[in-house]
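One-letter codes give the sequence; the fold follows as tokens. An example follows:
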Amino acid sequence: MDFIEELTWRGMIHTVMPGTEEQLKKEMTTAYLGIDPTADSLHIGHLVGVMMLKHFQRAGHKPIALVGGATGMIGDPSMKSQERKLLDEETLRHNQEAIKRQLAKFLDFDSDAPNAAELVNNYDWMKPFSFIDFIRDVGKHITVNYMMAKDSVKKRLSGESQQGMSFTEFSYQLVQGYDFLTLYRDKNCKLQLGGSDQWGNITTGTELIRRTLGGEAYALTCPLITKADGGKFGKTESGNVWLDPRYTSPYKFYQFWLNVSDADAEKYIKIFTELSREEIESLVAEQAADPGQRPLQKRLAKEITTMVHSAADYEAAVEASQILFSNKATETLHKIDEPTLLAVFEGVPTFEVSRSEIADGISLADLLVDRAQVFPSKSEMRKLAQQGGFAINKEKVSDAYAPASLDMLLNDKYIIAQKGKKNYFLLIAK
């Protein structure tokens, strides 16, 4: 597989430094990509870079994932209008381990292949470095004029930001440049990958390598991913879409991809899956012939949910997605976990009810009229139940005065009441 050719048709190349392609054709090459360790999980904004590393390894080259422990303590000014909060070492180490577990789903770290992936943390070589040593051995090679010419610096100094720029942030590109120099010297790493906003920092590294060691190093960046409507990719109303199920359930993760627009699905399926060009072209043709079936979104959601979580999580998410549209979802409701249940019924009216009254067999009419205001009156509830328009946990109930029981509780805590086809209510037994 030709790495540049592969990334080109996938729409994953923004800028390539001259000589990069020749270097990759000449020999197995080592490349690195930096990952910000400010949380103990990656989010889908990180996935473009991770997929670059994955394709790089598939092409027979050696990927290095660099967790920016030191740079995470400073904060990258690129595309930011203010400084980020700084992390302590214990938090950084915890985040590093969590990130490595997630990366292991994409990259081969453990085989004895010559191109097995590696994880490094720049804190390890920056921690013992004194400030005097740094400004003497590194700072003297890069002029202030060179650093000031970078777009990330110019934007912050041009008045677009009210806060200006601290010396800490100004020095960021030197620290990142020194990372590249260290990996070039110690691991023969000749290429740095990153987003297009990183071009300035990456080329500082190639310049530092040239000026200190007389070496030749290269840079390749991918475009920043956007949505077709101009909105920010990877953000929802509730924030980032995370890879860790503690922060974004597999069901919500699956739903995010399932609900992207047709234009975005056609773009994302190239970037976030390993599907071949032929498979993707076939799916695009299917979508054009019958957009209502949404084959692109379905396949995208399947591939990426399986890769990030598991095939079982994907199957469970599909099953959970059918709950609202199926009249035979009772079994699924009793099977799904609490985060998925709450995600499926997010936003529906919620009422707290007494667990002891349910145990005592309170009638459904008393429960749903007097205790929870699901129905305005018992007569209306009785009529709807007789007409087949009332259900508990997707199971039709014809007798409004039937007793409630603890057996009805999903996850030993919830009851789903349904009025008509589309009106759902969540009861929480306490």
